[in-house]
Design brief:
Layout lengths: L1 H13 L5 H20 L10 H13 L4 H20 L26 H8 L7 H16 L3 H5 L6 E2 L4 E5 L5 E5 L2 H19 L18 H14 L8 H14 L4 H8 L4 H4 L1 H17 L4
Antiparallel strand pairs: 1-2, 2-3
Helix pairs in contact: 1-2, 2-4, 6-8, 6-10, 10-13
């Protein structure tokens, strides 16, 4: 179970872009939960059922944790089991029928347009590996893909004549997302010039790959961004998810409607997308204060 929890924490860092403090909080919650399971001789996640979850919540209450703290612990564990279900480690989620109090969502972190430009300008595209990295960042920012969708792209998924990418998102739902001319130009250059140079006669269906044609991992792409952040003089923690957030934020700031952004992001519920309207609203207020003659 230690390996599973570490994989989950890596997922939160790379896919969700959580801060170090959030990761530490999730790690502590999971450690306490695993200690409870161990004391009750529950040795695998497969053996965790709804009864065990309720017993754990009662144990937290006996230890004097407030309702808010118990809710936070529950959210941590819910995310963990949702991850295990998606990774097919378990076949059913034991928290499915356990109610979790609704809490306010925190605003996602994002980069400004200038910060994104600085980041995308870092790779030296004369180098095939750097050219690959540049194309990956351009496609991700250009279409708002999840990192898992980006690294799973195959050659046939990208149409450089019509400038769109086809992905299979959560729940096996296919969606088609457009991207701009800059992403198209650099990706075309990668396919024509860099891809074969890196493959060196090895065959792979993937658009982007690591050594010896093996698929690029989520962790691999995260490490690329982590390296480029300081090179672009950015103090923010650069993760794949922050590029996805920036994509959505910049579209809304530019006047895109919420439904279109929802479709491109692959959100099944528009309430998930609505969190970006808070950012867009702040931007509009700032623009009004800056440019309106009566301010």
């Amino acid at each position: 179970m230690d390996e599973l929890t570490q994989n989950y924490l890596d997922y939160l860092i790379i896919e969700k872009g959580l801060s170090n403090n959030s990761i530490m909080s999730y790690s502590e919650d999971l450690a306490q939960f695993l200690t409870f399971l161990e004391k009750n001789r529950i040795n695998t996640v497969i053996d965790v059922d709804t009864t065990a979850i309720l017993a754990w919540l009662i144990d937290l209450a006996k230890k004097g944790l407030s309702a808010k703290s118990r809710a936070r612990h529950l959210i941590s564990i819910r995310g963990f089991f949702k991850y295990l279900l998606n990774e097919k480690v378990i076949s059913a989620n034991p928290l499915k029928n356990v109610d979790i109090p609704k809490i306010g969502l925190s605003l996602p972190k994002f980069l400004t347009v200038a910060e994104v430009s600085a980041l995308l300008d870092v790779p030296d595209i004369r180098n095939p590996r750097e050219l690959r990295n540049s194309a990956m960042m351009e496609i991700m920012y250009g279409s708002g893909l999840r990192v898992s969708e980006l690294v799973s792209l195959k050659l046939q998924d990208v149409n450089l004549d019509a400038n769109f990418v086809r992905v299979m998102g959560k729940g096996s739902k296919e969606r088609i997302i457009p991207f701009g001319s800059q992403a198209s130009t650099i990706t075309r250059k990668w396919i024509k010039e860099g891809r074969q140079a890196l493959l060196n006669k090895i065959s792979t269906p993937y658009l982007f790959f690591a050594r010896a044609g093996k698929p690029m991992t989520r962790q691999g792409f995260w490490k690329i961004l982590k390296k480029y952040g300081p090179m672009a003089n950015l103090s923010k923690n650069i993760t794949p998810h922050i590029l996805r957030h920036s994509f959505a934020t910049h579209l809304l700031e530019g006047g895109a409607d919420l439904r279109s952004v929802q479709t491109m992001l692959g959100h099944s519920d528009i309430s998930t997308t609505q969190i970006y309207t808070h950012i867009s609203r702040d931007y509009l207020i700032k623009m009004h204060q800056q440019y309106h003659p009566r301010n």
